[in-house]
């Protein structure tokens, strides 16, 4: 298996994750090939991403209908290294790779109970106005959280 | 297989459906038992229900954020008669069973390519205010559509 | 709100649940009306049901491809009492209402953080042969677990 | 918006798609931000990919439990260019970018009713043994189809 181009040194890359969230593979997430359907990797990335944004205090305003800004995915990618099956307990790990003016590049790693890396991934999230759809720069506070 | 209590005469019940919509079973909707995951029956019911509401001119206002009313499911049930598999072409059939002041009881039937009835179901939809959550009576026009 | 016909006395019915499992509403489970999409109630029921079957020792054989029997949903129903929103922590409660020769009638209750009952439901699960599709009676051991 | 690195010339890239499949955005696929939840882009890619494999005669054996080989996703990525909303009719376009010994690199483009490109993407699919998980080279026939 080749290392994806968003990872320089795999050992160093793995060790830099400090945020991790648990998810258990649901039966409704499997498919007729007997394993987790590939589309659910991105559901798990979204869970990890939102938990991370909640943890660092940024999500609070996004999910209030009164607030102007929401996060949107600009791009997403996933590399599948290991099949995952019903009822496995996984860790969804998230870290900040780069903070832009109104965006953030997040990296993802999903690890199974045997500490095997099952999926890796990345994606850029942009903060936009709910109304105009245009990008909205991070507040100093949000930028501070993301750079921690 | 017993006839569910919302069906009096199965032959007559089947013949009274005039609205039908096509759906093809997606691979991501199957599960590790090799068939359609049971939860997707309700996804198919929702597709049929919304297509029906669009067809009878009621849905137009619900999906505009400026409008006050939205439909909510009060209850839903499904009887599974026949397994369904990847790539099957199904018909989702919908009919009005009863029109209330601000609600409608819909019946559902899902039929496969061999004209076998795979699922039957029913459920009450209530029109409510997006803001107060309280029920909102049908307009005369909506009631007219539903009683057709 | 009327009491569904599978509940005699609501207070007594609520108190008889001994098995409960946690679930947090995912963002991908919400819909454009801003709340949990109705179809996910049945995803939560499936999670509760499988956790219950695991807890009582019955699920072990179902998810091994070498085993002959699998559980299938014969019917399912849900009554929606209270809207549910992103990030709410819910308890999915499960209990046995009736044990048949090769089937079991399960009842469900989903409760939010304010101890409000958001959904109630029921459904019959039948143990069938993976190969013939015919019903397979419970073993004495399985029956023992279900009747506890 | 930058052009993703898997696209050299966007105009030429767009014109080279010959396979397209229709999909209509379901209500259950939207989220509380009022648009299509990002995870469903990959559901649409899977639909397009499987339709393409069916059309070119390769899928037939994969979905029979007697057959040895299944396709698995090695990687997947999506660039989001334009928001998509409930009830939009989309075209999911698929083309072969590169054929390997036992894999194929597919490109995806999702276009809305105004001929706007809403998402682009790519991903490598590998044919593997259902039993050993090891890659299985394409037959001459399958390679012929993919190179057409």
UniProtKB/TrEMBL annotation, chains A, B, C, D:
Task: Give the SUPFAM superfamilies listed for this entry.
Answer: Thioesterase/thiol ester dehydrase-isomerase
Classification via CDD domains: 4HBT (cd00586)
InterPro entries, alphabetically? Answer: 4-hydroxybenzoyl-CoA_TE, HotDog_dom_sf
Looking at the record's lineage, which domain of life comes first? Bacteria
Q: Is Lipoprotein set as a keyword in this record?
A: no
Q: Name one Pfam family in it.
A: 4HBT_2
Give UniProt keywords alphabetically. Answer: Hydrolase
Q: Which GO terms describe its molecular function?
A: fatty acyl-CoA hydrolase activity
> What PANTHER family does UniProt report for this protein, alphabetically?
4-HYDROXYBENZOYL-COA THIOESTERASE FAMILY MEMBER (PTHR31793), LONG-CHAIN ACYL-COA THIOESTERASE FADM (PTHR31793:SF24)
Provide the protein name. Acyl-CoA thioester hydrolase
According to its UniProt entry, this protein's organism is Evansella caseinilytica
């Amino acid at each position: 298996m080749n290392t994806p181009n968003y990872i320089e040194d795999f050992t160093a890359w793995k060790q830099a994750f400090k945020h991790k969230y648990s998810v258990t593979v649901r039966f409704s997430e499997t498919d007729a090939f007997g394993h987790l359907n590939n589309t659910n990797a991105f559901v798990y990335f979204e869970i990890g991403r939102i938990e991370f944004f909640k943890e660092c205090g940024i999500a609070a305003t996004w999910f209030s209908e009164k607030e102007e800004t929401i996060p949107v995915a600009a791009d997403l990618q996933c590399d599948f290294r290991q099949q995952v099956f019903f009822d496995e307990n996984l860790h969804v790990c998230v870290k900040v790779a780069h903070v832009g003016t109104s965006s953030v590049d997040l990296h993802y790693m999903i690890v199974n109970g045997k500490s095997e890396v099952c999926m890796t991934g990345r994606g850029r999230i942009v903060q936009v106005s709910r109304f105009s759809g245009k990008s909205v720069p991070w507040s100093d506070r949000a930028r501070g959280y993301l750079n921690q």
